[in-house]
């Protein structure tokens, strides 16, 4: 194996090896490795209690790891936590939006905390109000905002300091689908502007939609890592499902298609043929049926999604709760 010395161009990335954390004997992170390239969106995907927030808290210097090391934006967490802090934005870092302040005042408050200076703070606030379509509510007190607008303000506050690396811990949990899409667009814009985005999510679809790479965290361990496509390819599960009107057709089809991997269900009168969903395979199956005079009543093509990936990797179903509502 060749060792690579990481130098220029990767200074906004996140690299971690062997991160461990336990609370009173309970292991929460059990040796987590991460490689997040600069300017990419990385999703840490996992169920409740997987260790996502703990990972974000460690990488954003809020708590220390028991073991392991990491660099964020080119700085060592252990040696230079202040330098890391200067480069990052963390959703949730300034606990919350202050309901008594106006939208603009909330942004200016962060600018103050970051010592940006009055003029620069004002400029930055104006820029973010515009970018997040918050200008109209700039003078409203935050307490009067809808949940959706509040969430946008929260993200805007995270960006006041122009961070090169942004941590978003479950940015869309609890949002309705339409608002979730607005957040997705904002996150995509952020990535398009060159910012490195590290987000955590319980939503498989969210990781699929946003992330260049996904790591699946389960019980404090990374159980899989790759692009959404790579993860999907790792698992079997793609198939064509044929339904017949009577058992004779099902029998005949089972005989004719016996060369492929087939699974039949005599009650449902269905036959599943393994397939990666490509058209030539589909056509071949239909040709065989037609040539034999077998009529299928219905045909569906199932390509594996990230739910299948999770099931294959952890042996557990994520359940309906894990899907965006
Ligand atoms: N400060 C803490 N003290 C004790 N246990 C904790 C603490 N923080 C987190 N945990 C435990 O660590 C596990 C992972 O938590 P967390 O990182 O919040 O998971 P996630 O964000 O993926 O839901 C959970 O079982 C949680 O109860
Ligand atoms: Mg969490």
TrEMBL record:
GO terms for biological process: response to antibiotic. It is a peripheral membrane protein. PROSITE patterns: ABC_TRANSPORTER_2. It is found in: Cell membrane. GO terms for molecular function: ATP binding; ATP hydrolysis activity. GO terms for cellular component: plasma membrane. Residues 14-244 form the ABC transporter domain. Keywords: Antibiotic resistance, ATP-binding, Nucleotide-binding, Transport. InterPro entries: AAA+_ATPase (IPR003593), ABC_transporter-like_ATP-bd (IPR003439), ABC_transporter_ATP-binding (IPR050763), P-loop_NTPase (IPR027417). This is ABC-2 type transport system ATP-binding protein.
């Amino acid at each position: 194996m060749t060792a690579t010395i990481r130098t220029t161009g990767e200074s906004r990335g996140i690299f971690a090896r062997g991160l461990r954390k336990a609370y009173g004997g309970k292991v929460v992170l059990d040796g987590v490795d991460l490689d997040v390239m600069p300017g990419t969106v990385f999703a840490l995907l996992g169920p409740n209690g997987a260790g996502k927030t703990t990972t974000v808290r460690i990488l954003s210097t809020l708590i220390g790891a028991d073991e392991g090391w990491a660099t964020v934006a080119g700085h060592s967490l252990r040696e230079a936590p202040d330098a890391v802090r200067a480069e990052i934005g963390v959703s949730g870092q300034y606990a919350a939006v202050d309901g008594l302040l106006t939208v603009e005042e909330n942004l200016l408050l962060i600018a103050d905390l970051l010592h940006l200076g009055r003029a620069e703070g004002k400029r930055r606030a104006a820029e973010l109000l515009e970018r997040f379509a918050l200008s109209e509510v700039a003078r409203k007190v935050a307490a009067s905002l809808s949940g959706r607008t509040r969430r946008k303000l929260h993200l805007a506050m995270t960006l006041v300091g122009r961070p090169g690396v942004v941590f978003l811990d479950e940015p869309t949990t609890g949002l309705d689908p339409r608002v979730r899409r607005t957040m997705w667009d904002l996150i995509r814009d952020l990535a398009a502007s060159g910012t490195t985005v590290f987000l955590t999510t319980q939503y498989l679809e969210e990781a699929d939609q946003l992330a260049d790479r996904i790591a699946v965290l389960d019980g404090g361990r990374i159980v899989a890592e790759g692009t959404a496509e790579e993860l999907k390819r790792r698992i079997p599960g793609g198939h064509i499902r044929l339904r017949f009107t009577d058992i004779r057709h099902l029998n005949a089809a089972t005989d004719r298609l016996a060369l492929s991997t087939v699974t039949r269900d005599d009650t449902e009168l269905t036959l599943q043929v393994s397939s990666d969903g490509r058209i030539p395979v589909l056509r071949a199956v239909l040709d065989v049926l037609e040539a034999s005079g077998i009529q299928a009543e219905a045909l569906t093509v199932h390509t594996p999604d990230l739910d299948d990936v999770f099931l294959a990797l952890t042996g557990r179903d994520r359940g309906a709760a894990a899907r965006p509502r």
